[in-house]
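Work Package 4 report. The design task specified in the project plan requires that, given a folded chain encoded as structure tokens, an amino acid be chosen for each position. We show below one input record used in the internal validation round.
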């Protein structure tokens, strides 16, 4: 019974982590253009629609690698908040740029630097939210 509760908690925490990552990604992506968007009065429905679509995309793309990391964290009882934050950021960058994400330092005009920062921040936010809901008690079902 305890393992079933942990699995359900991990799934719920994963969904919440995807929502958090999507919120950070949406706000971080729109921030450079915020001055042009604010006078037009962007409706909040559009922002929440963007968050919803981003949540679905992040959830689908990151599902397999995230569940692999979650299974390892549960099996080895990793409970460090720093570990979840770092793994979330690395996973976001690796899924976006591939394994060779270090080669994409920046474009000719520094265009990729902001993208990389936003992606890493969204992965870190997702990792921290997952830790807050499920990661801090990882491996507790074994005792």
């Amino acid at each position: 019974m305890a393992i079933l509760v942990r699995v359900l908690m991990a799934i719920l925490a994963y969904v919440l982590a995807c929502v958090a990552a999507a919120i950070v990604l949406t706000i971080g992506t729109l921030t450079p253009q915020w001055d042009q968007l604010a006078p037009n009065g962007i409706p909040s429905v559009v922002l929440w629609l963007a968050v919803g679509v981003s949540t679905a995309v992040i959830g689908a793309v990151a599902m397999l690698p995230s569940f692999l990391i979650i299974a390892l964290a549960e099996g080895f009882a990793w409970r460090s908040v720093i570990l979840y934050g770092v793994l979330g950021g690395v996973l976001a960058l690796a899924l976006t740029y591939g394994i060779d994400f270090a080669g994409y330092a920046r474009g000719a005009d520094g265009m990729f630097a902001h993208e990389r920062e936003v992606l890493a921040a969204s992965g870190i936010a997702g990792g921290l939210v997952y830790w807050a809901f499920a990661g801090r008690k990882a491996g507790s079902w074994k005792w």
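Residues 2-142 form one domain. Validation will be extended to a larger panel in the next phase.
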